[in-house]
Amino acid sequence: MMWLTPWVACATEATLPTQTIQVGGQTLTVEVADDDAERARGLMFRKSLAEGDGMLFVFQDERVRGFWMKDTQIPLSIAYVDGQGVIVRISDLTPFDTARVTSLYPARYAIEVPQGWFAAKGIEKGDKVTGLQ
């Protein structure tokens, strides 16, 4: 008898197309999640995320966004970014937490990185992100 692995388990370390962006003058290589399925999966089930890497969530409109950490075991920080590329909020996220963390202000993008990356680079609310799609 042959056992099949569920599709979620197969896709746990799959990567999306990448691009390089500048966040507060710092270079970051991000996987781009720009459709509903990619945004919903995000970094769920991943075991690691290298320093200097992240995920860019791209939305078609600008509004208050909310993310949670269900099935995400990597401690992350998130920056919400408006349509002009300005960071409107940065927050740390707790692995497996199902509480929504919102942008508080309208955002068109969200960037997830290893927890503490923004703080270590001196990146704060109001800083600019360039190279966005």
Description:
This protein is mainly beta and 133 residues long. The chain has one domain: Protein of unknown function DUF192 (Jelly Rolls, Sandwich), CATH 2.60.120.1140. Helix content is 11%, strand content 39%. The protein is built from 3 helices and 9 strands, in the order H-E-E-H-E-E-E-E-E-E-H-E. It has a 7-stranded mixed beta sheet with strand order 6-5-8-3-2-1-9. Strands 4-7 form a two-stranded antiparallel sheet. The chain is globular and about 30 Å long. It starts with 6 loop residues before the first helix and ends with a strand.
Which descriptors would you attach to this protein?
single chain, 133 residues, mainly beta, Jelly Rolls, 7-stranded mixed β-sheet, 9 strands, 11% helix, globular, disordered N terminus
Terminal-residue CA separation = 47 Å
Please provide the ordered H/E string of secondary-structure elements.
Answer: HEEHEEEEEEHE
Discrete helix count: 3
Using the 3D structure, state the CATH architecture: Sandwich
The CATH class is identified as Mainly Beta
Radius of gyration: 15 Å
- Unreliable runs: 1-12
The assembly state of the depicted protein chains is: single chain
State the helicity in percent bands. Answer: 10-25%
Say what the CATH topology is: Jelly Rolls
Q: Indicate the mean pLDDT.
A: 90
Structural class, by secondary structure, is mainly beta
List the strand order in the largest sheet. 6-5-8-3-2-1-9
Strand content: 35-45%
Number of domains: 1
